[in-house]
Amino acid sequence: MFRSLFTVSGFTLLSRLLGFARDVLIAKYLGAGATADVWVAAFRLPNLFRRIFGEGAFNAAFVPMYSRRIEEKGEAEADRFARRVISLMFVILMVIFVLAFIFMEPIVRVTTVGFAQDGRLDPAVHASRITVGYLVFICLVAAFSGILNSRRVFAAPAFSYVVLNIVFLVALVFVIPKTGDPLRVLCWSVMCSGLLQLLVVVVAAVRKGVHLGFAMPKVDAETKQLGKLMAPGLVSAGVQQLNLLVGQTVVSLQVGGVALFFYADRINQLPLGLLGIALGTVLLPEITRRLRGGDEKGARGTLLQGMEIALLFGLPAVAAMLVIPGPIMHALFVQGEFTSEAAREAGKVLAAFALGTPTYVLAKVLQPAYFAREDTKTPMRYTIISAVVNIVLAYPLFLWLGPAGCALATSIAGWVNLVLLWLGLRRDGYLRVTASFVTRVTRMVMASAIMGGLIWFLAGYANPWLMTDGSFLIRVGVLCGLVAIGVVIYFTAVIATRVYSVSELKARLKRSPRT
Q1: Strand partners for 338
Q2: Domain spans of the chain?
Q3: For 321, how many CA atoms within 13 A lie in the half-sphere containing its CB?
Q4: What distance in Å separates the CA atoms of residue 112 and residue 459, rounded to the nearest whole number?
Q5: Which of 156-165, 178-187, 470-479 has the lowest mean pLDDT?
Q6: Model's pTM, two decimal places?
Q7: Which residue, among 305, 263, 265, 262, has the nearest Cα to 283 in the 3D structure?
Q8: How far is Cα 446 from Cα 468, in angstroms, rounded to an integer?
Q9: What confidence tens digit (pLDDT) does each residue in 457-501 have?
Q10: 335 DSSP β-pair partners
């Protein structure tokens, strides 16, 4: 599991670093004003489908069913099932694409209520009609990724998201300076990247021996079962995204608010991508196999181990985003049209998001324990409750704190969802927290607090370089230096507080030889 986790996390880290470079260049060309708002709105709809299908409902339902067929009936029968599912999915996706293209104006009008008041609506509709086709590609990518993950192939699906950012960077560095039309180029880059991402996972599936082909779409007993499992998962994943969508809709009332929300969330998503999504991807087939083999004790141990890993690497990231959010946003984004004032406001949003980051990561760890048992209804109920909390709080907190208030509402909703997931697993007997786990987590919090305090102190001396409007490379270099110092401080504190000994850390992080 560790080897698979670091494979996924490694490619995710590469993708996030390239994605950061992409966002810095986008901020340079678009700033944090009306045009940036239009771009975020156009990219949001296909990205929403990616998070719902690629990281949510489809794999939650498909991977356990496909894995069970491999274990019980062999790979050939599992592939026949996959062909029927993918063929039916393609037809459904094309229908959704056509309907979304036709009704894009009311969709954009509802999801960005402030755009109709100041001329942002029409450009957002035109841009969204270009990007919406990406949903077809990325949902098919999710299907082939589920097949590969079930066969313990994690590299190609993770690399496919690296391809997305490579395409963007090529467009930003070479195409936009020649065309002078950054918005249109970015929108078409989304479509090109979707096609290339699909090619990556299809080629990997062929090389793994997966038997591909188009089967006549039909609704049989197996696809009905998949649909029954997906329906709650769709609602669950959709409601999770609704938490963000509600916040983005409210902040659209302030010009530039959508862009501030987007840029802050990009930094906040780093620990979620490296840890939460990677762990969820690896844990689902792992727990499924253990439960199918009757090893419930092993499944519970795997779940606790996943939570430990998530907190070990997630807590220091949260501490950093809480103590120096403004310097982080300033160092990474201030240039061109993105101003120091925008960075200060984005820093407030980042800090509010960071309060909920542990919940997003741990939810991705706990949900596979439900999905592996083909229980998608329980997480759905919990996410609906958390969405109601977010909807109730978003507008009042926006009036009080501005865009940061919407991020805070999302964080509070995340804590509600996590508590419900935790209590549900304890009730079912699948989460038995040991004394050693509690002790280690307490010491991780102490180590993170120590690191956060020292980083805050050092940042005070580094601010003349971090908070300058001068050289971007100097700012990033100083920030990277702080990060490196923070890593050393944190793991020194981890060892000093006896979370792990040096030998335990080496044993956990060492790659075991393949047999």
Answers
A1: 335
A2: 2-433, 434-515
A3: 25
A4: 37
A5: 470-479
A6: 0.69
A7: 305
A8: 32
A9: 998 888 888 777 667 788 888 888 999 999 999 989 988 888 776
A10: 338
